[in-house]
Amino acid sequence: MTLAYTISRYEELEEKLPAIEEYLQKIAYGNHVKILYALLEAVNNAFEHGIQTVKDGSITFSIKISDKKLYVDVLHNGNGFNYEQKIGIIGNPDVFFKEHQTCMRGRGIAIMQKLADKLIYTEEGKKLTLIFRIE
Asked: Which of 77, 69, 47 is nearest to 120 (CA)?
């Protein structure tokens, strides 16, 4: 079973959160909090950096399980970014966090790297797939 939503306002995400949390508890109990946190970080990044300046911007996200892995896809129709450069700047997330302890912003990708087992950006940075191993 796949859970999928398309939203254009943060309030829409807030309305969907109870259903998302319930779904994650059922399919990934024990990992559901870190998956939810990574999803929220990805959607926040899509709002802030992807569709903030785009008229009729939208974000589609889905959660599905296949072969003992959980896939979270987040796609927006806004501006992409040079994800290879950003990941290169981050390097090792543990080192990045130590060097940026007092920073309030700019740590989203590093957070997602620590939470997910794998991150894959495609479509010029407009799509992010987070992969989590589940039991």
From this structure: 69
